[in-house]
Structures are given as structure tokens and as C-alpha cells.
Amino acid sequence: MAKMLGARWCPSALRSPLQVISFPACQLHVSRRAKNADQKEFENAVTQLKLLKKDPGNEMKLKLYALYKQANEGPCNIPKPGVLNLINKAKWDAWNALGNLPKETARQNYVDLVTSLSSSSASSSQVKPGADKEQQGSENVVVTSEDGITKIMLNRPTKKNAITTQMYQEIILALKAASKDDSTITVLTGNGDYYCSGNDLSNFNTLPGEIEEKVKSGGILLRDFVACFIDFPKPLIAVVNGPAVGISVTILGLFDAVYASDKATFHTPFTHLGQSPEGCSSYTFPKIMGLAKAKEMLIFGKKLTAGEACAQGLVTEVFPDSTFQTEVWTRLKAYSKIPPNAGRISKQIIRNWEKEKLHAVNAEEVRVLQERWQSEEFLNAVMNFFSKRAKL
Ligand SMILES: CCCCCCCCCC/C=C\CC(=O)SCCNC(=O)CCNC(=O)[C@H](O)C(C)(C)COP(=O)(O)OP(=O)(O)OC[C@H]1O[C@@H](n2cnc3c(N)ncnc32)[C@H](O)[C@@H]1OP(=O)(O)O
């Protein structure tokens, strides 16, 4: 659990602009010693910092960040980030506050700070090298085709199948390929105990550029992703093997059948994350389950059991977890024998009545979400998620 922010709170890389919650620019009161740390001591301190068990808190992280930059690059030499860019601005303020502090002094102060932190928090020798290495390529989305069924499986079980930006793109490509292959039906499912924990909350970090660019490219990615589900021309079935969160729930309204294990739950905690509904759920959920139940889910984040989701029409059928895979795949194999063209045409005549409407809903939901992504509510929610999990 500690790996996510731990890996990103790497002073040498400083990959994550969201690793520090917004707080006032720090005033540094760092003790100076006569002796100056050499480069080796400094590098050891960088390593030591990564091994700390206890999170030193964001204010301390900002101080360390500033000292690290000063020690390596000298006085702050980058343009001041815009006011909306809260995190980078806090980091800039901290670095800039060091003024012309000599590199050697910054290096020594950095070493002193880490030493004082280490003595109050025993360092761990149990960090496994490469433990947070991301799977590369298409391993996180596995596509197989057999017996008239194309199966798209989310395969990132250690992260509860949270969807990275790369996975969104891979799913889009997989759906486009499946729409043209010779399968009759297409299935989306998850590997492991979760179906999917929704959008990977570190996506905002990994998208390139400043906040405005992230918002723009995130919006385009989301719109294209949902559009693929709206336009998918064949019967599309969700095999919900475990809990489902966020966007993995909202797009279920665009599927033709949803089969769920009785261990599955359905949760859309958008407002808690400072966000708003997507996946066309602002339109499909009220239509499927009625306004009152849809609002409980989409505004108040009520989590449904599989049985409740079935009673409300979001799920087609629930199976006992012990027999889930056998029963569902037997059913799907039978369904895959329907005449493929009749299957496609029947799906399309149902979908076509509202395709235009769904695309308009998608565009509007993305527009509103893009505003949300620039809100402090959203940034704080993401920070809270990772801070709770981070030891450093
Ligand atoms: C925002 C701009 C990006 C643009 C990209 C494209 C546009 C997409 C827009 C869609 C927008 C939002 C839709 C949503 O999906 S909102 C919902 C997001 N999901 C969540 O809030 C769920 C967060 N996760 C949890 O609450 C819990 O992890 C859990 C799912 C309830 C499971 O709890 P657990 O205790 O059983 O397991 P846990 O130890 O927490 O998790 C195991 C490891 O997996 C990591 N992880 C789980 N879910 C996510 C996630 N959604 N994002 C990132 N990482 C996740 C967790 O951090 C653990 O990792 P580690 O072992 O600590 O390294």
C-alpha cells in the first residue's frame, strides 16, 4: 500500500506534482554546520529518505524538495507556476525561498534533515527492488478470442485493475478490433478479486504537461473511451467478477448484459472525489433505475450490492461466486451461437434511437469534469487517497 506515493515521492526524480498537498510556502530554519556534506553523503541521504517508514508530512517534504533542488541546481531557475497549479506553485515557493543559499550548504542541510528524520523513524531494509515496477505494454489489458467470444480482461490485479491512461487507450484499440473481428459477442471482465477500481487516481500525474494540458488530454481520452462503448456495434457483455468502482460502473449502462458475482459491489464515489458523473451515467442511470436511486448513487455515492444493482436494473443477473465463472461462461458460449448479423443488427436498432443523445451526454459530462479536475476539491481528494497509503 505504501508504494504508490512512496515511489513517486522520490526526491531525485520528483515525478509527481501531486505528491505535496497545498500548504503555505515554507520558511526554512535549517541548522548549519561548519562541515559540508560531500556528494556521497548527500546521495546516501537521498537513499535513506526513500527507506523511511514514517511519512514526514508534506511541509517537511517541501523543505527536502527545495534543498534537493538547491543542492543540485542552485537558486530557483524555473518560471513561477500559475495560480491554478497549486502543487507546483507550493514547490516553487519553497525552492525560491532559499534565495542564494550556496549549493554546499543546501546539501549539508538536506543531509542533516534526513539524519534527524531517520533517527526518529527506523529505516526499513525490507524494500524490494522493483516492487513498484509497472507492467508494460499490453499486459494490463489481455485480449483473447475463442468460440465466437472476444474477451477483454483487465489484468492489473495488484492495483485492483485501476485503469491507467495506457489501459484506456488499449481498451479503445481492443474494442475497435473486436468490432471488426469475426466474434459474435464481446466481453469485458477483470482478473483477480476486483472487477475494476475505476480510474487510476495517479493518471492526472502521468499525463504530460501543465494542468491545462492534462485537463485537455484527459478530457479527449475520456470522451473517446466512452464513445467506443456508445458506438460498439456488437452485443457487449460485462462479467463483473468482483467489486466495481467509478468509471467501470458508469459505463455498465452502455452494455447489453451485465452478469455479476454475488461478491460484486457497485460504487460511484464521484462527489467524494470532487468529481461528477461520466460514462453517460447522468443519462443512463436515471433511465435504468429511476431518478431517486440514480441520485443516491451518483450524488451521494451509495454503494450497491450485486443483488441491489440487479433489483435496480443495472445488473442482468447475479450468480453465486463459487459457480460464477462456470455458469457465466456456459451462458456466454450459448449466446455466442446466435447468428452474428442478427445479433449486431438487433443491438444496433436498440442503440441507434439514442446514439446521438448519448454522444451529446458524453460531451457535456466531459466538459463538466474538465472543470472539476481544476478544482481544489479534486486535487485534495486525490492527495488524500495517496497520502493515506503512503509511508513517505
Ligand atoms: C483525472 C484525469 C485523468 C484523465 C484520465 C482519463 C479520464 C478518466 C476519467 C474518469 C474519472 C473518474 C472516474 C472514476 O473512476 S472515480 C473512481 C476512482 N477510484 C477510486 O476512487 C477507488 C480508489 N481505491 C480504493 O478506494 C481502494 O483501493 C479500493 C478499490 C476500495 C480497494 O481497497 P483495498 O483496501 O482492498 O485495497 P488497496 O490496498 O487500497 O489497493 C491495492 C492497491 O491498488 C491501488 N489502487 C486501488 N485503486 C486504485 C485507483 N483507483 N487508482 C490508483 N491506485 C489504486 C492502491 O493504491 C493499492 O496500491 P499499493 O499496494 O498501495 O501500491
TrEMBL record:
Keywords: Acetylation, Isomerase, Mitochondrion, Peroxisome, Phosphoprotein, Transit peptide. Pathway: Lipid metabolism; fatty acid beta-oxidation. Coiled coil: none annotated. Residues 121-141 are annotated as: Disordered. It catalyses: a (3E)-enoyl-CoA = a 4-saturated (2E)-enoyl-CoA; (3E)-tetradecenoyl-CoA = (2E)-tetradecenoyl-CoA; a (3Z)-enoyl-CoA = a 4-saturated (2E)-enoyl-CoA; (3E)-nonenoyl-CoA = (2E)-nonenoyl-CoA. Its main location: mitochondrion. CDD domains: crotonase-like (cd06558). It holds the Pfam family ECH_1. GO terms for cellular component: mitochondrion; peroxisomal matrix. It is found in: Mitochondrion; Peroxisome matrix. Its EC number is 5.3.3.8. GO terms for molecular function: delta(3)-delta(2)-enoyl-CoA isomerase activity; fatty-acyl-CoA binding. Residues 38-123 form the ACB domain. It is an enzyme of class 5 (isomerase). The keyword Flavoprotein does not apply. In the C-terminal section; belongs to the enoyl-CoA hydratase/isomerase family. Able to isomerize both 3-cis and 3-trans double bonds into the 2-trans form in a range of enoyl-CoA species. Has a preference for 3-trans substrates. This is Enoyl-CoA delta isomerase 2. It comes from Rousettus aegyptiacus.
